[in-house]
Amino acid sequence: MLKLPSRAALLLFTGFSGLLLSSCAKIDMGNKVLVSVRDQRMMILKEGLPVKSYPVSTSKFGLGDRPGSMYTPLGTMRIARKIGEGAPSGAVFKSRRRTGEILRPNSPGRDPIVSRIIWLKGMEHKNRNAYRRYIYIHGTPEERTIGRPASYGCIRMRSRDIIDLYRRVGVGAEVKVIRGPLYRMPPVVPGDGYAERQPDRVLGGFRAGPSI
């Protein structure tokens, strides 16, 4: 008897297929991004090896995926869209479009999205609302808050860091948000998920807010 795939597997396949079809860009399957809520830090792995890390800021309201909340979702997501190619550092975005304004880091009284937007799509039941909640990795002018939970649900980065991340990862790259620390996460073996061995070291060192 033919065994039919589970509903969860079908949803996962449908979601990822939609991501592939919605983009004409080459799909990035070599890079993975890990985000630690405990560490407030992100790490890029290329072909299973850590290559760069950055400080980040996740939600100050907590973790989860409830529609209408300002939580950061946990689990595996993928990059669905990249927005802001060629924009100068500090360029302000509203509704994913440049306004023409450019802000310096820590400009007083301002908290828009700046520099680059990496839009995430949930690949699990527990983060299935991420895309329609506008969960991004994006730049913020409030760089003094990076390194502690301070966002409205998105993953915030310093402008120079989001610009660097943007050029390193492509549409389709996996982004995994975890509760625990990065330094205990095993590296990725290509084609074999997360391996059991430990990394030697780490190199380098909705509404998502009022501007959506």
What this model shows, in words?
This protein is of the alpha+beta class. The chain has one domain: L,D-transpeptidase catalytic domain-like (Beta Barrel), CATH 2.40.440.10. Helices cover 12% and strands 28% of the residues. It contains two helices and ten strands. Strands 1, 2, 3, 4, 5, 6, 7, 8, 9 and 10 form a ten-stranded mixed sheet that branches. A hairpin with a 4-residue loop joins strand 1 and strand 2. The longest helix has 15 residues. The radius of gyration is 17 Å and the shape is globular.
Q: What fraction of the residues are assigned to beta strands by DSSP?
A: 25-35%
Give the full name of the CATH homologous superfamily.
L,D-transpeptidase catalytic domain-like
Compute the number of helices.
Answer: 2
The gyration radius over C-alpha positions equals 17 Å
Shape: globular
CATH class categorisation: Mainly Beta
What's the SSE pattern?
HEEEEEEEEEHE
CATH topology: L,D-transpeptidase catalytic domain-like
Helix amount: 10-25%
How far is the N terminus from the C terminus? 50 Å
Biggest sheet character: 10 strands, mixed
Structural class by sheet pairing and helices: alpha+beta
Low-pLDDT residue spans: 191-212
Number of domains: 1
CATH architecture: Beta Barrel
| Mean pLDDT across all amino acids | 84
* Total beta-strand segments: 10
